[in-house]
UniProtKB/TrEMBL annotation:
Membrane topology annotation: Multi-pass membrane protein
Gene3D superfamilies to which the protein is assigned, alphabetical: Cytochrome b5-like heme/steroid binding domain
Biased composition (Polar residues): 446-455
Family designation: Belongs to the fatty acid desaturase type 1 family.
Catalytic activity from the UniProt record: octadecanoyl-CoA + 2 Fe(II)-[cytochrome b5] + O2 + 2 H(+) = (9Z)-octadecenoyl-CoA + 2 Fe(III)-[cytochrome b5] + 2 H2O
InterPro entries reported for this sequence: Acyl-CoA_deSatase_haem/ster-bd, Acyl-CoA_DS, Cyt_B5-like_heme/steroid-bd, Cyt_B5-like_heme/steroid_sf, Cyt_B5_heme-BS, FA_desaturase_dom, FADS-1_CS
Transport is among the record's keywords: yes
Organism of this sequence: Mycena indigotica
Compositional bias per record (Basic and acidic residues), positions renumbered to this chain: 456-469
TM ranges: 47-69, 76-97, 109-128, 189-209
UniProt name for this protein: Acyl-CoA desaturase
UniProt-listed Enzyme Commission number(s): 1.14.19.1
Organism lineage: Eukaryota, Fungi, Dikarya, Basidiomycota, Agaricomycotina
Gene Ontology process terms (BP): unsaturated fatty acid biosynthetic process
Cross-referenced SMART domains: Cyt-b5
Length: 469
């Protein structure tokens, strides 16, 4: 999300800069100099005094109100209501409508959101959206105005208190410059923040239930403090707390706590993957009042063209991360020796070696069952009588239809491959169940395909294929 007021060192940009470089971020960092590192000695000169003043005065006035003014229940309810009004001006207006163009809004709705957003005192639509588009384009880089890589405090509030070490990356806001309502708000912004930020929340409690001081302190300043930090949590908490169910390339995370703190903007991993979707939460039970507000406006004819990313592509993102997690779990497990790493043993040698140690033959593989004879659930005698013999039929249902666990454990005891392989038709059975759906990277599949097309002796999956018949 974005901040309180623009810094003089970061003016809005109306049109994108055309750069003929492969990596704009790397080129910009190389070609431009950042401001000197922050020191205690230069702190006074490096403060963004306008933002610092606002972010200091607002909580100070809130504390003063808590200490000097009784909170009436009518004022408390109105403060909560006005928190949502001005918060939705940011989430449904500044963020999803103007920064991301996730739906179209009628003029009455645009005027309402522009005024409500001004009541949150976070800068004009044009300035706010310019910073937020830069955040999405350069996430987690030095050109991201609230780079989460600089730490939780920096991304929450530090980047507003201090002058940015670098100018935020270029972002196109030419579409916003053409919008008459955005131009109107930008032109009258000071009047709007004074009237919507302090005037309205003070006057309404005064006129309807005679609570001038309560409206001023609670619905005005205390409400404003909560709106500020609700918005700031999207820059900080949403890049720190939770999971990444769609992509973990960058820091955005999904978490219900962040959603509760930000009027529904807490499913941030989804949002960074599909920023033009009008939803943050895609499941009906997830907390996203901003989505519900937009949907209600759509039902009333005040909004249209609600953009929803194709469900098929959303599910691909989820599946990608699920497979990645499975691969990580898979890589932590021990697996049977690769077929190509096992010695090829003749049947005569197998029988001869079985006289020295308990070996059995199952599906073309020779297994050493030394440490399992006494552990066999059916009793040791069933195994002993197959030492030095082919137990394939017995293992695959002739005596007992063994479980997946039995198949997986047996494969871990492979010590050799029988010369000549196994009868045709048992190849698939020879693959342990845990390996039949084993997650493989594209490079591994390509290598396997290349080996197969090259007439390799061992076709199929390198790790799990049985020896050739």
């Amino acid at each position: 999300m974005s901040s309180v007021y623009p810094s003089k060192s970061t003016p809005p940009t109306d049109a994108p800069e055309i750069v003929e470089f492969d990596n704009y971020v790397a080129h910009t960092l190389k070609a431009t100099k950042p401001l000197p590192p922050m020191r205690w000695s230069n702190l006074v000169n490096e403060l963004n005094w306008l933002s610092t003043a606002i972010l200091t005065i607002v909580p100070a006035m809130s504390i003063l109100g808590f200490l000097t003014t009784k909170l009436r229940w009518e004022t408390a309810l109105f403060a909560v209501f006005y928190y949502y009004v001005t918060g939705l001006g940011i989430t449904a207006g500044y963020h999803r409508l103007w920064a991301h163009r996730s739906y179209n809004a009628s003029k009455p709705l645009q005027y309402f959101l522009a005024m409500a957003g001004a009541g949150a005192v976070e800068g004009s639509i044009k300035w706010w959206s310019r910073g937020h588009r830069a955040h999405h384009r350069y996430t987690d880089t030095e050109l991201d105005p609230y780079n989460a890589g600089e730490g939780l405090w920096w991304s929450h509030v530090g980047w507003m208190l201090l002058k940015p070490r670098r100018k935020p990356g270029v972002a196109d806001v030419s579409d916003l410059s053409k919008n008459e309502i955005i131009r109107w708000q930008h032109r009258h912004y000071l009047t709007l923040i004074l009237s919507m930020g302090i005037g309205v929340p003070t006057v309404i409690p005064w006129l309807f239930w005679g609570d001038l001081r309560g409206g001023f302190f609670y619905a005005g300043f205390a409400r404003l403090m909560f709106v500020h930090h609700s918005t700031f949590c999207v820059n900080s908490l949403a890049h720190w707390l939770g999971e990444a169910p769609f992509d973990d390339k960058h820091t955005p995370r999904d978490h219900v706590i962040t959603a509760l703190a930000t009027i529904g903007e807490g499913y941030h991993n989804f949002h960074h993957q599909f920023p033009m979707d009008y939803r943050n939460a895609i499941k009906w039970y997830q907390y996203d009042p901003t989505k519900w507000f937009i949907w209600v406006c759509y039902q009333l004819g005040l909004a249209s063209h609600l953009k929803v990313f194709p469900d098929n592509e959303v599910r691909k993102g989820q599946l990608t991360m699920q497979l990645k997690r499975l691969r990580e779990t898979q890589d932590q497990l021990a697996w049977p020796s690769d077929n190509n790493d096992l010695p090829v043993i003749s049947y005569e040698s197998f029988v001869e070696q079985s006289a020295k140690r308990p070996l059995i033959l199952v599906a073309g593989f020779i297994h050493d069952i030394t440490n399992f004879i006494e552990e066999h659930p059916g009793g040791p005698h069933y195994l002993v009588k197959y030492v030095g013999k082919d137990a394939t039929t017995a293992f695959f249902g002739g005596v007992y239809d063994h479980s997946n666990a039995a198949h997986n454990l047996l494969a871990m005891k492979r010590v050799g491959v029988l010369h000549g392989g196994l009868p045709t038709g048992l190849q698939e059975k020879a693959i342990p169940p845990s390996q039949r759906l084993k997650v493989a990277r594209y490079a591994e599949l390509s290598a396997t395909s290349a080996n197969s097309s090259g007439g390799s002796e061992h076709d199929g999956e390198k790790e799990s294929s049985p020896p050739p018949a």
